[in-house]
């Protein structure tokens, strides 16, 4: 099959930090990119002329556009741009193998939310996950509701880190209700961090999976990322923050209202939960269930509902969830009695 050749021109704008971050001093990055992307790159002033096989030229141009976009929000050294090139190409290659062959590299790159410190590309894997990510991009408040293993919290964390990286927010706040301890955390031994750590472990797990341990701890120590129980949100106004409320089915009505009214200017909130896993005392109604009814028609708030088919953990997890649901339904049907039957039994 005959190879199609192409030529593209990209103007980097002007001789500034951004320009030298891409080309490197003495054009050292140009030599690296030529070999790495297998294209011929000719620098002419601030313009780069890229020649070679059409798909490879397109791949390098997509990389350039992506790195230029990053450089609008953050400073990168020439070495860091080279590292990003490796991550970029790795994520594109991974998609070619694992996802849908023949898709455009630009489309693939746009779906990558984040590259983790282990060089793993985080991407939405199901249609519902794609809708969820799009909803987070477009709305100030998004509810992700569905069973365990559907990626609700994990993708929200990835989106939060992406927003922080791009300078769209100044901090990330991760919170969840500490149901077992109620609001009486003061009675537990240790510092606040030690008291709440058991309840917030899933959030720490997601964070450390995406960001290396030292960097994560640096951000936690400087309060760039804050992890706290829901009770600690009272009385605050949260501006320029990406806030994730996890396990929201265990938030009371008052806690949910309190949380939603904390959101300030420049902030975005994602609320995740599973209405089939409520651990609240029977007398307390879930704030998540009430919010689904109260807020369903408000512009700027979107609800995304996940199903068993969206489970992205080990394949057996979806089967386990389904088996339990079927078991509960069968149990209800076999032991269920009408109100009339129960009334007669009471009279007897």
TrEMBL record:
The GO cellular component terms are:
cytosol
Molecular function terms, GO-annotated:
ATP binding
Does the keyword field hold ATP-binding?
A: yes
Query: Which InterPro entries does this entry report, sorted A to Z?
Result: P-loop_NTPase, PhoH, PhoH2-like
- Sorted alphabetically, which keywords does the UniProt record give? ATP-binding, Cytoplasm, Nucleotide-binding
Ranges for domain PhoH-like protein: 122-325
Record's protein name: PhoH-like protein
Native source organism of the sequence: Aquifex aeolicus (strain VF5)
Gene from which this protein is expressed: phoH
């Amino acid at each position: 099959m005959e190879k199609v050749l192409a030529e593209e021109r990209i103007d980097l704008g002007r001789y500034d930090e951004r320009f030298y971050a891409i080309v490197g001093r003495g054009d050292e990055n140009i030599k690296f990119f030529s070999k790495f992307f297998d294209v011929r790159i000719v620098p002419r002033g601030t313009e780069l002329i890229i020649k070679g096989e059409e798909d490879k030229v397109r791949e390098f141009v997509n990389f350039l556009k992506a790195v230029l976009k990053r450089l609008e929000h953050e400073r990168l050294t020439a070495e860091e741009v080279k590292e990003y090139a490796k991550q970029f190409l790795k994520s594109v290659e991974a998609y070619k193998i694992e996802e849908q062959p023949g898709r455009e590299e630009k489309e693939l790159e746009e779906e990558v939310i984040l590259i983790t410190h282990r060089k793993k590309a985080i991407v939405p894997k199901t249609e519902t996950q794609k809708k969820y990510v799009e909803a987070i991009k477009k709305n100030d408040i998004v509810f992700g509701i569905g069973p365990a293993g559907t990626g609700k919290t994990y993708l929200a964390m990835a989106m939060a880190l992406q927003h922080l990286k791009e300078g769209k927010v100044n901090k990330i706040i991760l919170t969840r209700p500490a149901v077992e301890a109620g609001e009486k955390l003061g009675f537990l031994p240790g510092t606040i961090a030690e008291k709440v750590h058991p309840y917030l472990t899933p959030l720490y797990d997601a964070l450390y999976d995406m960001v290396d341990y030292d960097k994560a701890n640096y951000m936690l120590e400087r309060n760039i990322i804050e992890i706290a129980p829901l009770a600690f949100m009272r009385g605050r106004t949260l501006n320029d923050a990406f806030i994730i409320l996890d396990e929201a089915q265990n938030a009371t009505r008052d806690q949910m209202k309190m949380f939603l009214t904390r959101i300030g200017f420049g902030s975005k909130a994602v609320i995740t939960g599973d209405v089939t896993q409520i651990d609240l005392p029977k007398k307390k109604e879930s704030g998540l269930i009430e919010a689904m009814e109260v807020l369903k028609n408000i512009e700027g708030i979107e609800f995304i509902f996940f199903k068993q088919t969206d489970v992205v953990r080990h394949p057996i997890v979806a089967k386990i969830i389904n088996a339990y649901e079927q078991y509960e339904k069968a149990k209800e049907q076999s032991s269920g009695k009408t109100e009339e039957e129960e009334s007669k039994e009471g009279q007897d």
